[in-house]
Specification:
It contains 15 helices and no strands. The chain has helices spanning about 5-35, 40-50, 55-60, 70-75, 85-100, 105-120, 130-150, 155-180, 195-205, 210-220, 225-230, 240-260, 265-275, 280-285, 290-310. Helix 8 runs antiparallel to helix 12 and helix 13 runs antiparallel to helix 15 (about 290-310). The relative contact order is 0.12. It has one domain (about 5-310). The termini are close together. The chain is about 75% helix and about 0% strand. The protein is mainly α and about 325 residues long.
Length: about 325
């Protein structure tokens, strides 16, 4: 496969996953903001959403105040933000057109129809009343695309690069969503373990469709260390960091075997996966959850760069 074809497939998958991830991140922000009536706390919560999305630089270049209107606009439809949902969907279609013959009919029709519907969105779809429906639509479209990939693609190098892009992006997002909680400052009157703390953790689990999974695994009331354990170290949780890194290692190995080419990307992925596979949540909390998550995000960025250098250029 030509490197430019592999590159388009990799980024097609990443940007489709990113569109869903931004929708999930905004869902967390909206849920958390609805729990507070304090304007200062609201600003902190929306600032945390911008930081966790990795859009702090582009946002503050255009806006002074992180409020619901500004943040939703920037993360959903700002054309100057390459990670906004609409920008992501435009990039997905652009990459899909470049590798049309490498996609199945179901994949192409899913991408194309999503872009056509996105272009028909009106201002009311981006209002405070309509945005929740829009976010659900984005998540549904991304999952439909994932189903088309899973059920219609040949298990060849094209499929491996698509899945590789998906899990690199998903790992990044899970870490960012979990880190949102540690960017949000609880009101001074609220103690850790209080009612607001409980609903914030609930919002995070709902955003990754893991609330029911949590109760199945732990059969206990929400505890921060259990939530972190589920989303970081539990391999049976499909959006957990260890699960995503396991998938990355698998597809890198298949690509390496097929191309007879291994390198730094394999070493990095294997090392990160081993740390997660044998990690313990109490040690992560002792070292600081925020520090662990930001460190993981940095490692994942380096891994993505190595994958691109090794196979996509």
């Amino acid at each position: 496969m030509l490197s430019r074809t592999a590159d388009s497939l990799f980024w097609l998958a990443r940007y489709m996953e990113r569109a869903e991830n931004v929708a999930r991140l905004l869902d967390v922000g909206l849920r958390m903001a609805s729990l507070s009536s304090n304007p200062e706390t609201d600003a902190s919560e929306w600032h945390s959403t911008i930081v966790s999305a990795g859009c702090e630089k582009t946002f503050y270049a255009k806006h002074e105040t992180p409020n619901a209107t500004n943040v939703v606009s920037h993360l959903v439809r700002d054309p100057d933000n390459p990670s906004s949902i609409i920008s992501c969907l435009a990039t997905v279609r652009q990459n899909a057109r470049a590798v049309r013959t490498a996609l199945t009919t179901d994949m192409w029709e899913g991408v194309n129809s999503t872009w056509i519907e996105a272009r028909q969105l009106k201002d009311e779809n981006f209002s405070s009343e309509g945005v929740r429906t829009l976010l659900e639509w984005v998540k549904e479209r991304s999952q439909r695309f994932g189903g088309a990939v899973s059920h219609t693609m040949l298990r060849s190098d094209a499929y491996w690069f698509v899945r590789l892009g998906t899990f690199v992006e998903r790992a990044d997002n899970t870490a960012r969503i979990l880190d949102v909680k540690y960017h949000v400052l609880l009101p001074r009157s609220e103690n850790i373990g209080g009612i607001l703390d409980y609903y914030q953790w609930t919002a995070i689990l709902r955003s990754v469709s893991a609330l029911r999974a949590y109760h199945w695994v732990y059969r206990d009331r929400l505890q921060p260390w259990h939530v972190a354990d589920l989303l970081i170290l539990r391999a049976e949780m499909p959006r957990s960091l260890v699960s995503c890194m396991g998938e990355i290692v698998t597809y890198l190995d298949r690509i390496g075997d097929a191309y007879g080419k291994r390198g730094e990307a394999h070493r990095l992925a294997g090392g990160i996966h081993a740390q997660l596979r044998y990690g313990k949540i109490d040690r992560i909390f002792q070292g600081g959850l925020h520090e662990f998550l930001t460190g993981f995000i940095d490692q994942n960025i380096v891994l993505g760069a190595e994958i691109r250098r090794q196979y996509l250029t």
